[in-house]
Amino acid sequence: MSDAAFLQEILANPDDDSVRLIYADWLEEQGNPRGTFIRTQIALNQETDPARRALLSNQEDLLLVAHEAEWSAAFRRRTVGWTFQRGFIHHIVLRPQRMIAVLDFLSHLTPLDQMRLVENAERTPPMREITWLSMNPVLQRMRMLDLSATHMDSQTLGALSASPYLEGLRHLDLSTNRIGDRGMSTLSTSPFLPHLVTLNLRGNLIAGTGLLDLTTRIQEDLKQGHPMHLQRLDLRGNPLGNTVRRAILRDRDLRRITLLD
Predict the structure, then answer these.
(1) How far apart are CA 226 and CA 247, in angstroms?
(2) Considering the entire predicted model, what is its pTM?
(3) Which of 12, 18, 165, 232 is a plausible cystine mate for 198, CB 3.0–4.6 Å?
(4) For 46-102, how does the pLDDT look when each residue is reduced to its tens digit (9 = 90+)?
(5) Packed helices 50-71 and 33-46: angle between N→C axes, nearest 10 degrees
(6) Residue 213 phi, psi dihedral angles, 5° rounding
(7) Residues 6 or more apart from 15 whose CB is under 8 A from it?
(8) What structural domains does the chain harbor?
(9) CA-to-CA distance for 38 and 88, rounded, in angstroms?
(10) Torsion sign across C-alpha atoms 87, 170, 107, 76
(11) Other CB atoms closer than 10 Å to residue 124's CB: what's the count?
(12) What is the DSSP annotation of the chain?
């Protein structure tokens, strides 16, 4: 097989370490240190012994010092930051105004499953970019999406919530935006909400009515036999009234969630 063929196999099976390890074997046969790096990061991801983890982490650091510039060349010109996991870049940081130009290209180079957008230069809601992203199939790969402090408002969140590609999303960070109760109500109707494990809504001008819509959605899903995956909900920094707080605390369904308020 060729590099391109291995990459396509890895992109098609992003959770399968065996494909990556076969590729690592092939690279090592070519004398390519990337093979050792892939093997090291997979071992580090699985190892629980502290002493063994320390050795693997040191080896990982040495390989990155020597080769990260080469392995991340295509990303250095197009992103703000990146993180390797299991031998490949899996997390990228982008500016909204650059995302449309580069995301499709980058998604063909590596098994992306996490993305963070940082504040756009205009300091306005990134409506055009979020609308484009919501209709992009690359979202099917995403397990974590960080849209904190990007000036998201209720209308922009509405565009994201309409996406048909977010059923795989498990972690969503919307902190330090201004989605308000209207945005919270919109989020409560989104098809991907039942699949989320963590939801960060810290500092979003949520006063209460939108949150009550969320609790109603959770209750309705449970009554219909749909499992609730949400484990952590961060509501700190929102002007929730005492009435809303008491209603949340009395809700037995929300007691299963780590609630930060």
Answers:
(1) 22
(2) 0.91
(3) 232
(4) 999 999 999 999 999 999 999 999 999 999 999 999 999 999 999 999 999 899 999
(5) 140
(6) -65, -40
(7) none
(8) 119-260 (3.80.10.10)
(9) 7
(10) negative
(11) 12
(12) --HHHHHHHHHH-TT-HHHHHHHHHHHHHTT-HHHHHHHHHHHHHH---HHHHHHHHHHHHHHHHHHHHHHTHHHHTT-SEEEEETTEEEEEEE-HHHHHHHHHHHHTTS---EEEE---TT-S--HHHHHHHHT-GGGGG-SEEE-TTS--BHHHHHHHHT-SS-TT--EEE--SSB-HHHHHHHHHT-TTGGG-SEEE--SS---SHHHHHHHHHHHHHHHTTPPP---EEE-TTS---HHHHHHHHH-TTGGGSEEE-
What one-letter code names the amino acid at 8?
Q
Cβ atoms of 56 and 47 within 8 Å: the answer is yes
Size of the chain, expressed as the number of residues it contains: 261
Dig out the tokens for 162 from the structure.
């309409």
